[in-house]
Amino acid sequence: MNPSEPVRMIQVGAGAMGLAWLRTIAESPDAEVVGLVDLDIDVARRSAETAGLPDLPTATSLAALADTVAADAVVNVTIPEAHHPVNLEAMSAGFPVLCEKPIAPTVAGALSMVAASEATGRLLMISQSRRYFAGFAELRRLVESLGVVGTVTCEFFKAPHFGGFRERMAHPLLVDMAIHHFDAARHLVGQEPVAVYCQAYNPPWSWYDGDAAATAVFEFSGGAQFVYTGSWCSPGYETSWNGRWRISAQTGSALWDGDGSPTVDMPGRTGTAGEARRAPAVPEQISGALAEFVHALRTGTTPSGEAHGNVLSLAMVESAVQSALTGTRTVIEDVLADAHAQATDAEQHDAVRAVLKSWRDVRETVGLPAR
Ligand SMILES: NC(=O)c1ccc[n+]([C@@H]2O[C@H](COP(=O)([O-])OP(=O)(O)OC[C@H]3O[C@@H](n4cnc5c(N)ncnc54)[C@H](O)[C@@H]3O)[C@@H](O)[C@H]2O)c1
């Protein structure tokens, strides 16, 4: 790949988030969108027009477009249920893929995606856009200086009226939103989830059918506890979309409201308590994911959102839901082992199934430390 040329991308999925991606790629000097695919051709044409790209080639399948335009990569912004077929088709055709979160609706589906990436030898990166905030990058830097982490808390309280599928889901907060906060917690403390106890519930005034509120306590591999509490039907004193964070560690504590710069308090060190540090500018949200993907393609480095490393974020969600349903502490490696067996049984592609069967220990595959 010529580093002086923009990466040519075919985008699949032109809905609400698809429009945001079209605009983001159009604004990037490092990438350009060369084609747009959607099952609904009118949606594709309308989104291309709205993004100021009326002449962008559009089609209803990747195969139709891949033959007519020269491209280097695919960005997948379809619904979660379509991530599997679209990613598989793209990687089988030789494209590296940048895919919207979640990697798949289930951990079994995620493992199948990881195996497909191994079978085809193509990069699959998941865009977890909330990893890319200047304030969050600064918080990570501060946490590294605080010594051993004891407790991490994240509070997330909002009251959006989305309408549509989120108000019909069984676990809208845990499945559609908390994956961002769970993923951020891993990225923040550099430890992996071991087990979770979770209660999910629906406040009496809720406008959601499913459980719009939840509290989960995760144990992490290095001993840290991550306490997450949130609600999607909580009018008043709303937090930011990133949530409100506290990190309690050996030599001090850090706070972040999810919007601005974090603060740190290290007793004994003068001049640090409450001091707001200005977070250095970085490409934020999906621009940050795009920048990391392009960098990975140009340098061959492994991006932080690479699929193997993303599975545990989805496993945190699935384990929290399982704990809420059973009322018991759920062990992450048990969820992974069940998902691996399911994925192997269900896999239709011989090459992908062979990869799934070849994994000695699924924990090792996704980077979960041995107990
Ligand atoms: N990072 C974030 O903060 C964030 C926010 C919103 C949505 N998302 C994610 O973005 C993705 C898309 O969400 P959305 O809100 O744009 O959904 P959407 O329903 O608005 O759009 C999805 C589009 O994909 C198309 N599609 C479905 N299956 C397809 C297939 N097999 N081939 C081609 N096109 C297909 C649909 O026709 C639709 O136009 C989801 O994974 C969602 O979780 C992320």
TrEMBL record:
Domain of life the protein comes from? Bacteria
Q: Which residue numbers delimit the Gfo/Idh/MocA-like oxidoreductase N-terminal domain?
A: 11-126
Checking Gene3D superfamilies in the record gives: Dihydrodipicolinate Reductase, domain 2, NAD(P)-binding Rossmann-like Domain
Where exactly are the transmembrane stretches of this chain?
A: none
Record GO terms (molecular function): nucleotide binding
Q: Which residues form the GFO/IDH/MocA-like oxidoreductase domain?
A: 137-253
Which Pfam families did the record assign? Answer: GFO_IDH_MocA (PF01408), GFO_IDH_MocA_C3 (PF22725)
What protein is this chain from? Answer: Gfo/Idh/MocA family oxidoreductase
Q: Which organism is it from?
A: Phytoactinopolyspora alkaliphila
